[in-house]
Amino acid sequence: MRHVTVFLLIIILWSCGKPVPTPNVFSDPVRVQIAELQDRRQTDSLLVFLNHENPEYRRAAALAFASVQDTLVVEKLAILLLDADKNAQEAAAFALGQTGGTAAFQALSSWVGDSHVVQEALGKTATQIESSKLNAWGLYRLALRGKADSTHTSRAIQLLAPTISEQDRFGAAHFFGRTTLKIDLAEQQLLQALRSDSSAYIRMAVASALRKIVSAEVLQALKEAAANDNDYRVRVNAVRALAAFAVDDVAQNLIEALKDESEPVTIAAAETIASLNFEGHAQQLSELVQSTNSWRVKGNLYESLLASGKNSEAIVMEIIAQFKSTENPYGQAALLTALRQAPAAHSFVQEQFDSSVPVIKSSAAAALVSMNRHRLFQPSMQQAFIEAYRKGMQTGDAAVIGTVAAALMNPSLNYKKLITDYQFLYEAKSELSLPRDNEALQPLEAAIAYFEDRELEKPVANEFNHPIDWAFVKTIPRDQQVRIQTSKGDIIIQLFVEEAPGSVANFLQLTNAGYFNGKNFHRVVPNFVIQGGCNRGDGWGSEDYSIRSEFSMRKYKEGSVGMASAGKDTEGTQWFITHSPTPHLDGRYTIFAEVVSGMDVVHQMAVGDQIIQVQAL
Fold it and tell me: How many Cβ atoms sit within 10 Å of the Cβ of residue 346?
């Protein structure tokens, strides 16, 4: 009996020490009802909740319309701008900004008071507006839409001053990165920010903006930042900005950047070199291409060497030999991409349509299409490319079909006149289905319409097909965390079930099924994102279902976890993690989690690195 008592005491003490899961808001059936109506895009039924006596329900309904984006409810949302509850007001303003249009702008313009949410929403909807009515992020939204003018530029210059809050300086820096206007008047303010702002986020934003000002002082500042800034992300952006200057002025700096201790910087340098004419530096590149261990750097340097036009045949043979000697599919993909600079190698590239590895097939298709637009493409190759495209369409591979379809409908390539029998397009279509192949069906349907000399009847869209499992959602703690074990280390993320219940439930159900285990990070863009969850390993993969977009007022910051998509309401299994704030994604891609531990691992991730296991904690 004594042993039983001791055992029970141990169990009680253990239970007391174990954290109790925090229930989420969907224990409330009304919140479930609102979220379900949002998910099904049922406007009429949602409208009722804008008048509910409970301000939380009014706010939830308003936020739901930020994802629904129905212009017919603008008038009702405008009324909510006068709500007694500030949170409901701001939710309505956010939804109006998401919905857009003249009526939404007029409703927001009538707002009396100072609200950052309203000012940003005004930037999303205005065509003309006084700069004094917008904060830095409102100006940024205006610039993102190409609606800014010189008065907005002047206001943004003021907001770069060191005495202004960091958040406003950050918004102003992004304004200059996105505006299509001349920004020369901001040169000194941008240079000061690049050289001395304490925020790396601001320095990386102004480094990107300075590519638009070609002056000796800017060039020197970018060179210094590319070599010396203590944050690799600033160096990445500065390296990219050097592409705006004469090759002879930046060549040695870019070559030095290839030796940076940070792989993302070396990749950015190699990509920049590949985008420029490095003909006069072929010898240095030839030496560097042999010494690098990075397939992405190697591929880009080979591409630059081929573009120079010197010893092309020998370089092609070298690339093919390396392709055959490695078993790394992502290395092979990088080499195929390099061959897009050598149209004469089209036969070898076409042969890769027979590969069983999706990333090799899709890379071959992309390289072939690029060859078709290359200056060295010969009319005598045209028939061979037609046959290659037919073969690609017959593979039944969604990535190949989508890529080839985009080429066939390019008027400059003249395939409408050259191909009289396009039945093979319909045959390819029969191999695809919605929602799985949405991304490939979009260009394929457009190509068919192009060959038939007609307008595309309606855009390809997924019908509602995957209801949210609310019983499962209710079991997810508000603070649920997940461990992503990778070949580089562990990343811990915290899920936002209350803001994105459908996305979180989908992610956890895939996690519990072991879906992500063993897959690769197929996409890594330096100082942007790492992306995984693709069942093909090349970004074209999905399953036989899709979920809906869930847009919240949350902003993309360093470590945000978002759902990848091919357009609104096309999300599935792929997700990404951001290296730094990405405001152009706000309100356009679902944020369903954020990194709470392991950002150092995120920053080290490279294409092909493996997701070993994903596990709910």
Answer: 22
